[in-house]
Write a structure and sequence with these properties.
41% helix; globular; Rossmann fold; 8 helices; alpha/beta; 7 strands; 256 residues; 7-stranded parallel sheet
């Protein structure tokens, strides 16, 4: 009988990772590669050389797909590219996202749509397309959505982001309800306050940054490396009976 550590291996698996070019996306893509998965990196830029190099350094293959996720137009092309290159898909990591800040009283339709389209609409239809592929393959699969602290809380000045990430948590549960019996595990990771581009404005505000750090029991901002264990767990057979959950990786933020 193989040991428990073998259950975390992803050897020969194929993972589609959106937003793979930097920050949390790159960190999680590299973790999946180090655990054994080949990576299909989906980004809005023409290449992701740092991610590609790190995946290849782990001994895995990297295929790049340039796609504008503000519409669902590239969804089927992403799935078709992965299947053409590797013959199958085993893991979807829905990481790409955007945020816009404005007082709610002044928030515009453009600001609303720009965030909701990427964070919720395209994420949903990519889950749907990959789940169809899983069902065709007949071998199940893993979908990991990236939620947020604002899947649990209201936040301030980010109404479309809060709505989208609350929606991601809800859809994660709904899809688990419908697809678990088909061997498809759908879960989410809710990162805490991470040192990424999305929080640059917060970290640049000395008072706001101090207020945030004062509430984090771990007393530091998170890093991409902090998500690596969680994403490998949820992508692997070690989590085969975990479905519909949103795992907070937050340094204890929600416990306060």
């Amino acid at each position: 009988m193989s040991g428990i550590l073998e259950a975390f291996r992803l050897d020969g698996k194929v993972a589609v990772v959106t937003g793979a070019e930097r920050g949390l996306g790159r960190g999680m893509a590299v973790a999946l590669a180090q655990a054994g998965a080949h990576i299909v990196g989906v980004t809005y830029v023409a290449s992701a050389p740092e991610t590609e190099a790190a995946v290849q350094a782990a001994g895995r293959k990297y295929v790049h797909v340039m796609a504008d996720l503000s519409s669902i137009e590239p969804v089927q092309r992403i799935v078709d590219t992965a299947v053409a290159q590797f013959g199958r898909i085993d893991i979807l990591l829905n990481n790409a996202g955007t945020i816009m800040r404005n007082d709610t009283i002044d928030f515009t339709e453009q600001q609303w749509d720009a965030v909701m389209n990427v964070n919720l609409k395209t994420a949903f239809f990519l889950c749907q397309a990959v789940a169809r592929r899983f069902m065709e393959q007949g071998s199940g699969g893993k979908i990991i959505n990236i939620a947020s602290m604002l899947s649990f809380q209201g936040g301030i000045r980010v109404p479309s982001y809060t709505a989208s990430k609350s929606g991601i948590r809800g859809l994660t549960m709904l899809m688990a309800n419908e697809w678990a019996s088909r061997g498809i595990c759908v879960n989410a990771i809710a990162p805490g306050y991470m040192a990424t581009d999305n929080t640059a404005q917060l970290r640049a505000d000395a008072q706001r940054s101090a207020d945030i750090l004062a509430r984090i029991p771990a007393a530091r901002w998170g890093t991409p490396e902090d998500l690596q264990g969680a994403v490998v767990f949820l992508a692997s057979s070690a989590s085969d009976y975990v479905n519909g959950t949103t795992l907070a990786v937050d340094g204890g933020w929600l416990a306060r």
